[in-house]
Amino acid sequence: MSALTNLFSDIDATAQEERFEQLVAQQGVLIERIVSTGQASPDGFWYDDPRDEWVVLLAGAAELEFETHRVRMKPGDHVQIRAHRRHRVAWTDPQAPTVWLAVYFGGQGASCVLP
Questions:
Q1: Burial of 6 (0-12, 13-18, 19+ CB in 10 A)
Q2: I need a labelling partner for 3 at 20 to 30 A (CA). Which of 23, 48, 66, 114 fits?
Q3: Domains of the chain from N-terminus onward
């Protein structure tokens, strides 16, 4: 039997770097918890993942930037990002931790090896 864990436990609200925690990696699926504390993607940096990604914002606030527009996210908002759709994290709330759940699947790299 697996140990019970909580997505909101062990969150360091003063962390200087984003925290990525792999929760599940099997059969072409990777699920990870991401905790941001005011971080954003570096200027000029774009994610271009070979896998589809579904992301839900569980706590905090964030803004995703795509090449043509930005999307402001609040708890409960979710979006599917197709493989190779360039995107970046433009902003996360510096006042409270932003907790994401990201699910990567399909496409090249479906073996769940992080890029």
A1: exposed
A2: 114
A3: 19-105 (2.60.120.10)
pLDDT interval class at 111 (50, 70, 90) = very low
Residue among 47, 75, 72 nearest 62 (CA): 72
Quickly tell me which residue has 């072409």 as its tokens: 28
Total-model pTM = 0.87
Contact by Cβ (8 Å): 80, 71:
no
Check: CB of residue 32 under 8 Å from CB of residue 20: yes
Cα of 93 vs its chain's centroid, Å:
14
Which residues are within 8 A (CB) of 83 and not within 5 positions of it... i.e. 6 or more apart?
49, 50, 51, 52, 106, 107, 108
Cα distances from 66 to residues 44, 69, 90, in angstroms, run 12, 5, 9
Least trusted range by pLDDT, from 13-27, 74-88, 97-111: 97-111
Task: Read off the amino acid at residue 21.
Answer: E
Q: How many residues does the chain have?
A: 115
Residue 64's CB is within 10 A of a number of other CB atoms, namely: 21
